[in-house]
Inverse folding.
């Protein structure tokens, strides 16, 4: 609940800081008193909500499971949403009023708008009264702060861990490697005390794995004493120490020794004294923060007896306490292991745990849904074990799984265990995580996409410390992965995570919370048949046309995944989007922008990519709050001059790919920008626009630019372009294309770009040589050069780029030989050499390209032999060949085959027009470049 208040309080602060009176104009006398009263009342409400937020954060853990407290929280949430509605309505009206002076003078006195202004004070009064009643209700039902110990940790009964479901080691399935490694670490002869950590999401079996080793008699005999304690989310320091003493020392001795009244420091001294000359094994199960270790570290003496301390945790920052990388990160079970474990539980009464044939299909679906999570497999399997083995009954259970997780007491431990991670999130992360759950099952969440959505929704903090909100959002994602709530599935060439997924059952449990708290709804998800009018966010996955009614005032995000709906439905339903902040119609079947869009004054994010939209109306100038405009793969060929009025725009994407293989100079289409781009001072990414002499001079005003794609560059104004680029200190990605194959690009006047990491340069270079400036690009990780007309071997000119990870040369060199010397390109992972018609020799010395994984040769018709040096690249595991000569192919399969025997994946597609090559283009390899679907994300994304 505190997270809802967190978002509302941020909105209040922003709204009070924007100066609505100044935006509207002081000549509008009628509005002034209303706005002044509004700001005064909002400051008072802000204070009340701040206190509420602090109170809830203080008592939430103490009141876990208290139905009266939960009911009170629901009312607090409703009040917070009412305040948010008032703030957003206020922002809508002030932006509408400020649209143009003539518009406001003409419209303000009309009954509708005047009534809306007059309604604000009434709504505020009602909210103030409800806040007052909240305090009275809290006192009436005794919702107060309990006694808190000095460590600010509240003591609650420990919840049973996942080991409660696997009490018998004979029932364990999987994790054999991890158990073996843990056993080896515990038995190794090492004098110093060793701290070992087991990391993983809730329900993976961390406690079960640890317990199986802890109970091993050989291990127990190795140690003089041992103890197992559950640290829990809300441990009390003194009680934790007393429990350790109880297990280490005789129970009667601990009772008569006065330990119950000892201070923390005295308890630490008692444990130190007892362990001083003993080899001990202590397990700290379910550790949630590093603070728990701070004082225990002193209690567990380093006595050079070979003692071991083992912690289990869901948080990476806690696991990092383990020295010398003594960390085991548990993963989900393989499907075969999952099936074995499920059958052991669901069919334990049958011989050999055999699944009845009539249930096989449904059982496999249930196991697949568990996605290798042992807690879920065991719990669901145990629940089904006493159901009738009838197909209809199991089908009903499977189809109602979301409801079962929320309401079936037999499955409550799944949701309880998973919810513990969610409840541990700070306010600024919780809403972000709820947002992730709204995406479809197994959806690959792109880092840049989710970051923009979070920012548009106001969920990301503007820290004003030099970091952009995009960088803060990236930190949020890192924290969610470190808490084992999101899993990284793809990383870029530099190893930075780019794609994340949420475990199915974590998503199901989180969706239940998102719906209950009116945060958002995933329509079309199993178990979601209707949309409550209180929903703030709506993501439609399927069955959109069955949604006939949509409440207007509360919706803030609308994301459409169902691409089968007719355009008429989209135009009709968009009429109810008054206070929308996020509108995503990607792949929607529309040819023009819905008329209502230009009246969405609060809109921050608009995605019309992959649609048939051809024209952006001049009335887009009204969308002054817009931060993201995505028009990729639409039919938009020019942007009206009014776009330059969108001064809050941060990301502008508008282009289409003509050549998916990127072998031609005009592989990208570009868009004409008709306005004065220098007004877009908040712009960070612009892909891609047509260059002209006015545009290139204006670009210098965009000092925040981080990514730029500019096409049709001519030599006549290139000096002005270089001058503008040097005024972008944060520029990290640059795509620059010449206007045609004959245009010569001179880079002599370009100064170093200190933060450049990606450079894509297409067009002839002056003098047919790599510019000396390239020696300054020390941070470059990705380099692509197309049709550069280089006359000398360029490889040596790139060899100093020690951080280079991707190198792609398309028709860039007209010579006959390329040479890779020893110790060059130590980090290069991908090398593409394409369309060099004269190239007949590639020399690769032993000791070069020592990290290469992917090698592509395309259109090298004059290369007859497989480069001998490929045999030295032991890391190479993928090799792709297209449009190569018949002689090369014959030698690859024959006399030169020994050179490539170590490469596990070699694909020769013959002609680029062949069905095999076309299939490859749509395969996972190129999908990583362009995203899921046909081309759902561009290579610059």
């Amino acid at each position: 609940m505190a997270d809802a208040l967190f978002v509302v309080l941020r909105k209040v602060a922003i709204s009070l800081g924007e100066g609505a009176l100044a935006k509207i104009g002081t000549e509008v006398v009628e509005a002034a008193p209303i706005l002044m009263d509004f700001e005064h009342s909002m400051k008072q409400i802000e204070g009340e909500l701040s206190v509420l937020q602090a109170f809830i954060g203080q008592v939430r853990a103490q009141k876990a499971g208290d139905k009266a407290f939960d009911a009170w929280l629901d009312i607090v949430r409703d009040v917070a949403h009412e305040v948010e509605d008032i703030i957003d309505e206020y922002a809508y009206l002030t932006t509408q009023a400020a649209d143009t002076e003539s518009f406001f003078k003409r419209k303000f006195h009309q009954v509708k708008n005047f009534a809306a202004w007059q309604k604000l004070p009434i709504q505020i009064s009602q909210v103030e009264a409800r806040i007052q009643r909240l305090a009275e209700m809290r006192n009436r039902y005794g919702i107060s702060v309990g006694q808190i110990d000095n460590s600010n940790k509240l003591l609650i009964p420990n919840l049973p861990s996942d080991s409660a479901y696997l009490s018998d080691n004979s029932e364990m399935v999987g994790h054999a490697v991890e158990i073996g490694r843990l056993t080896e670490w515990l038995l190794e002869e090492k004098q110093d005390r060793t701290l070992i950590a087991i990391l993983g999401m809730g329900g993976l079996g961390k406690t079960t794995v640890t317990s199986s080793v802890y109970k091993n008699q050989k291990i127990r005999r190795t140690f003089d004493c041992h103890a197992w304690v559950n640290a829990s989310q809300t441990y009390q320091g003194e009680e934790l120490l007393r429990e350790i003493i109880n297990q280490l020392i005789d129970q009667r001795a601990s009772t008569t020794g006065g330990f119950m009244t000892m201070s923390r420091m005295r308890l630490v001294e008692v444990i130190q004294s007892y362990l001083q000359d003993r080899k001990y094994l202590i397990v700290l199960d379910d550790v949630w923060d590093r603070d728990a270790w701070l004082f225990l570290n002193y209690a567990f003496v380093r006595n050079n007896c070979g003692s071991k301390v083992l912690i289990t945790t869901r948080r990476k920052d806690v696991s990092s306490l383990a020295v010398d990388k003594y960390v085991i990160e548990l993963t989900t079970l393989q499907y075969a292991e999952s099936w074995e474990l499920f059958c052991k539980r669901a069919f334990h009464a049958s011989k050999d745990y055999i699944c009845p044939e009539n249930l096989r299909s449904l059982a496999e679906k249930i196991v697949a849904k568990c996605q290798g999570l042992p807690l879920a497999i065991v719990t669901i399997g145990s629940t089904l074990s006493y159901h009738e083995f009838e197909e209809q009954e199991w089908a009903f259970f499977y189809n109602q799984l979301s409801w079962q997780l929320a309401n079936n007491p037999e499955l409550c431990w799944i949701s309880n265990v998973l919810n513990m991670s969610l409840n541990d999130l700070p306010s600024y992360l919780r809403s972000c995580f709820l947002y992730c759950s709204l995406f479809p099952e197994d959806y690959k969440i792109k880092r840049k996409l989710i970051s923009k959505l979070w920012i548009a929704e106001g969920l990301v903090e503007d820290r004003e410390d030099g970091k952009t909100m995009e960088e803060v959002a990236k930190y949020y994602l890192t924290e969610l992965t470190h808490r084992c709530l999101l899993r990284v599935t793809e990383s870029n060439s530099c190893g930075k995570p780019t794609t994340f997924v949420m475990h199915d059952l974590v998503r199901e449990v989180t969706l239940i919370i998102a719906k209950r708290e009116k945060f958002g709804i995933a329509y079309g998800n199993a178990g979601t048949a209707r949309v409550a009018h209180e929903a703030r966010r709506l993501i439609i996955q399927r069955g959109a046309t069955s949604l006939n009614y949509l409440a207007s005032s509360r919706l803030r995000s609308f994301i459409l995944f169902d691409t089968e709906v007719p355009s008429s439905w989209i135009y009709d339903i968009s009429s109810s989007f008054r206070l929308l902040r996020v509108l995503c119609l990607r792949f929607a079947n529309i040819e023009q922008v819905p008329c209502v869009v230009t009246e969405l004054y609060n809109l921050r994010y608009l995605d019309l990519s992959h649609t048939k939209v051809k024209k952006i109306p001049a009335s887009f100038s009204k969308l002054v709050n817009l931060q993201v405009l995505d028009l990729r793969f639409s039919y938009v060929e020019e942007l009206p001059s009014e776009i330059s009025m969108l001064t809050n725009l941060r990301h502008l994407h508008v282009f289409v790919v003509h050549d998916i293989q990127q072998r031609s100079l005009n592989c990208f289409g570009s868009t004409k920008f008709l306005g004065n781009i220098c007004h877009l001072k908040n712009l960070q990414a612009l892909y891609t626009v047509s260059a002209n002499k006015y545009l290139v001079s204006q670009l210098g005003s965009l000092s925040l630019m981080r990514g730029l794609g500019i096409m049709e560059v001519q030599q006549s104004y290139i000096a002005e372009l270089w001058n503008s680029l040097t005024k972008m200190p944060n520029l990290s990605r640059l795509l620059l294309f010449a206007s045609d194959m004959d245009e010569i690009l001179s880079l002599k006047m370009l100064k170093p770009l200190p933060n450049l990491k990606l450079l894509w340069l297409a067009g002839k270079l002056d003098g047919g040589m790599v510019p000396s400036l390239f020696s300054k690009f020390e941070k470059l990780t990705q380099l692509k050069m197309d049709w550069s007309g280089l006359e000398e071997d360029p490889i040596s000119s790139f060899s100093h780029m020690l951080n280079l990870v991707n190198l792609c040369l398309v028709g860039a060199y007209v010579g006959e030989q390329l040479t890779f010397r020893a110790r060059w390109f130590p980090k290069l992972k991908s090398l593409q050499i394409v369309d060099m018609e004269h190239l007949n020799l590639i020399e690769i010395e032993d000791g070069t390209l020592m990290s290469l994984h992917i090698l592509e040769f395309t259109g090298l018709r004059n290369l007859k032999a497989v480069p001998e040096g490929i045999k030295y690249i032991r890391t190479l595991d993928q090799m792709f060949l297209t449009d190569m000569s018949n002689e090369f192919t014959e030698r690859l399969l024959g006399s030169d085959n020994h050179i490539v025997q170590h490469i596990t994946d070699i694909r020769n597609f013959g002609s680029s027009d062949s069905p095999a090559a076309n299939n490859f283009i749509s395969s996972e390899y190129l999908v990583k470049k362009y995203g899921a679907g046909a081309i759902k994300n561009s290579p610059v994304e």
